[in-house]
């Protein structure tokens, strides 16, 4: 597949404002304790966190913000990164020059005074090595069929469909009976009935084992978008950069160079 541009991309006001201005900001909502229900929200150059209805929950107090994973999210204030919980409490002080998302196993990569290392959820330095990256190129839903230089697929899990050997490449998406298929230099998606649910019009489709191969990223004419659980377009293919989904949100860069997050329904969480 062609290469993808995955960038390392990276929160309201407790202020009385005139009514006209307040209409520009998300409506405040009661604080939640479960950070996993919150989405990083950008208003202009400031970041906070909103609920799934885009109502502001944690104020626009940050210069950058990341998703909640393991009930922790990285935030940046000035040049330094730290971690907060779902109530906005600073659990790990802002002291790092870089801080990444926590993994499902409770590891996050940080940089402190030029030293790169992993920390746990309490901020303690980890000395055990990370687990190996999961395998991605394997078959789970069936077997490949080959005939005269072309590739098909025989489903053995959840379906008995046989996909004729008429593709140049077939990749198992490992869920929902979906396959990524290529003819020539164009990619599409087949379902378990062997029907194209996404036409063969895309330059690349990429899924990652890190999030269970969900919400694959598609590329077309230099722009990026996402696929749904059904293999159809979740978003328009319009972003200049797109990162894999993490905890049901994904970070994107717009065509104007602004960053923000979308949720698993494709809804955008920012105001410029």
From TrEMBL:
Pfam (any one): WG_beta_rep
Signal peptide: 1-31
UniProt keyword Signal, yes or no: yes
Alphabetic keyword roster: Signal
InterPro entries xrefs: WG_beta_rep (IPR032774)
Protein name: WG repeat-containing protein
Organism field: Hymenobacter sediminicola
Lineage, broadest ranks: Bacteria, Pseudomonadati, Bacteroidota, Cytophagia, Cytophagales
């Amino acid at each position: 597949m062609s290469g993808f541009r995955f960038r390392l991309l990276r929160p309201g006001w407790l202020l009385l404002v005139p009514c006209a201005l307040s209409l520009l900001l998300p409506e405040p909502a009661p604080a939640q304790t479960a950070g996993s229900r919150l989405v990083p929200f950008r208003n202009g150059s400031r970041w906070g966190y909103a609920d799934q209805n885009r109502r502001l929950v944690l104020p626009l107090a940050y210069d950058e913000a990341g998703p909640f994973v393991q009930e922790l999210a990285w935030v940046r204030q000035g040049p330094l990164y730290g971690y907060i919980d779902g109530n906005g409490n600073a659990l790990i002080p802002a002291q790092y020059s870089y801080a990444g998302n926590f993994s499902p196993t409770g590891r996050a990569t940080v940089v402190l005074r030029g030293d790169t290392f992993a920390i746990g959820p309490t901020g303690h330095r980890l000395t055990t090595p990370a687990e190996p990256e999961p395998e991605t190129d394997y078959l789970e839903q069936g077997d490949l069929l080959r005939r005269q230089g072309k590739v098909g697929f025989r489903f053995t899990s959840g379906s008995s469909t046989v996909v004729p050997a008429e593709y140049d490449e077939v990749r198992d998406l490992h869920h929902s009976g979906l396959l990524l298929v290529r003819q020539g230099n164009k990619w599409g998606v087949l379902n378990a009935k062997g029907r194209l649910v996404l036409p063969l019009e895309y330059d690349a489709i990429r899924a990652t084992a890190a999030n269970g191969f969900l919400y694959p990223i598609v590329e077309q004419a230099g722009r990026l978008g996402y696929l749904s659980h059904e293999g159809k377009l979740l978003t328009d293919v319009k972003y200049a950069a797109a990162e894999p989904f993490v905890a049901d949100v994904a970070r994107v860069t717009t065509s104007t160079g602004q960053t923000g997050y979308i949720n698993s329904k494709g809804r955008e969480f920012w105001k410029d």
